[in-house]
Design a protein that fits this description.
The protein is globular, with a radius of gyration of 29 Å. It contains 19 helices and no strands. It has 2 domains: about 180 residues, Growth Hormone, Chain: A, CATH 1.20.1250.20; about 200 residues, MFS general substrate transporter like domains (Growth Hormone, Chain: A). It has about 500 residues and is an all-alpha fold. The two termini are about 30 Å apart.
């Protein structure tokens, strides 16, 4: 296998980028444009908006909350097998959803199965991209992660047309069949480093080879040929000598096995102690991260932003229909407008945060203020054009997800980036899971989206205030960012696998 240093930043790495981009497009296309499917599910199952909203919230939140498990799968089995398996999960979940008899079944098939499959795709594509890129890693990850936004833009229009032509069930079946192309994308993901599972298998195979040296020879080797009618004294003596030799070897092997079992027991005890020490060290590191005031405020703001800003992705189409602002299916749905704006926001905000005199935390707080203001204006809008403009604005400032890894690195440093980013994703996933059902319950209670969107906007604005106030120089307990040494980037893929 080629050395990883010989293939970084080019060559086959760009094929990996294209395959990973397409994998995220195929996996996240339908979940990111689930707002198109939401009104159809309301009409099909006649359930409350709060209950039906669990489908869209779980498909986006489960993958984030389960990101540590997904990353462990990639580390042990490699990106290619995990992507193949995720293709089966995403495709199978979408096809199962076509036969859903009720919303509860849909929560399992679309929300959990498809959501976990997307989480596996996300972890696999980021890990394999980090392995192939060092100096151009930021550019490569930026291209790969825009696959989700491009997928949402394309799938929103495609699902609208498929529903008109083949109905909801036919649309899900076709989208599920298209998702099988994830397996083709996996074929391009040639690993640079052997995954942990294969290394364990190789070690076990070497141990088995050594044990075969002490095995008895087959009994056929000790028997006399069937064609001979008599046994000579020389042959009998040879057989006896071989039997004596085998008995001697058996006793030696038994003694060796006893010693090895005792040593194996000691080795297991040492491994358990090391695991306990590593676990306690990990928990202590997590505690230190949560003690940081800037980090804690960032986690709270991520939770509040996800709680308030994600529901429009699911409900914006139903808002237009319920207010009578859309008489027929739009060529470019509101979800598509938000998705393409989010793609532009990720790129532009990522460039802005690289400017030296711009503070990343204050820039994130500004995007939250602007997004919260857009949420407040949605109930006041009485035209479809106004909803299109607000969808673009909200989608653009929702691209602030591209700032999370940058801000996290500035707060805790690169050494603790993986742990801190995992904590952030947990808070973000938890907010995404709770947001849509809460908004749906507000509608079921008041029969209007006005109070629901005021609540969402209030959550986002509250998160912005908390983030801004707790990071002012007069409130910070620790030294400012200027006192922290510059981050020295490394090519260690384990520390940057969750960047983006």
């Amino acid at each position: 296998m080629a050395s990883s240093t010989d293939v970084l930043d080019g060559g086959w790495g760009w094929a990996i980028v294209c395959a990973s981009f397409m994998a995220q497009l195929l996996a996240y296309g339908s979940p990111q444009s689930v707002g198109v499917l939401y009104p159809e599910w309301l009409n099909a199952f006649q359930e409350g908006k709060g209950m039906t909203a669990w489908v869209g919230s779980l498909v986006s939140g489960v993958g984030l909350i389960a990101s540590p498990i997904c990353s462990a799968c990639v580390d042990n089995f490699g990106a290619r097998p995990v992507t193949i398996f995720s293709g089966v999960m995403v495709s199978g979940g979408l096809m199962l959803s076509a036969f859903a008899p009720n919303v509860q079944f849909l929560i399992f098939s679309y929300g959990i199965v498809v959501g976990l499959g997307c989480g596996l795709v996300y972890a696999a594509t980021l890990t394999i991209t980090c392995q192939y890129f060092d100096k151009r890693r930021g550019l490569a990850l930026g291209i790969v992660t825009t696959g989700t936004s491009v997928g949402a833009f394309l799938y929103a229009s495609a699902q609208n047309e498929l529903i008109v032509m083949y109905g909801l069930d036919g649309c899900l079946l076709i989208i599920g069949a298209v998702a099988l192309n994830l397996m083709a994308c996996a074929g391009f993901m040639r690993p640079l480093n052997m995954p942990g599972y294969y290394l364990k298998q190789k070690a076990a195979l070497e141990c088995n080879t050594e044990e075969q040296l002490f095995e008895k020879p087959p009994l056929d080797d000790l028997t006399i040929t069937a064609g001979s009618t008599s046994t000579t004294p020389d042959k009998s003596l040879m057989v006896k000598e071989m039997l004596i030799t085998i008995d001697t070897k058996d006793s030696a092997v038994q003694t060796e096995k006893k010693k090895s079992s005792f040593l194996a027991g000691l080795a297991i005890i040492k491994v358990i102690k090391k695991k306990q020490q590593a676990y306690s060290k990990y928990m202590h590191s997590m505690y230190e991260i949560m003690q940081d005031q800037s980090m804690m405020s960032f986690c709270i703001s991520i939770f509040l932003f996800s709680l308030g800003a994600f529901p429009p992705v699911l409900f914006i189409e139903d808002v237009a229909m319920s207010q009578g602002l859309m008489e027929e299916v739009s060529v470019i749905p509101l979800v598509s407008i938000g998705a393409i704006a989010s793609c532009a926001g990720k790129l532009l905000l990522g460039m802005l945060v690289d400017i030296k005199w711009i503070n990343g935390i204050f820039l994130y707080a500004f995007t939250m203020f602007a997004g919260g203001l857009a949420l407040f204006l949605i109930p006041l809008t009485k035209s479809y054009l106004g909803l299109q403009i607000l969808s673009f604005v909200l989608g653009f400032f929702s691209g602030n997800w591209s700032l999370t890894s940058y801000i996290t690195t500035k707060i805790v440093g690169l050494d603790k980036l993986t742990q801190a980013h995992g904590i952030l994703m947990f808070f973000g996933g938890f907010g995404i899971m709770l947001g849509p059902p809460v908004v749906g319950w507000f509608f079921d209670w008041t029969q209007s989206y006005d109070l629901a969107f005021y609540f969402s906007g209030g959550c986002v604005e509250l998160g912005a205030v908390i983030l801004l106030l707790l990071n002012l120089p007069c409130w910070k307990r620790k030294s400012s960012e200027s006192d922290r040494p510059d981050v020295q980037y490394t090519s260690n893929c384990d520390k940057v696998a969750s960047v983006a």
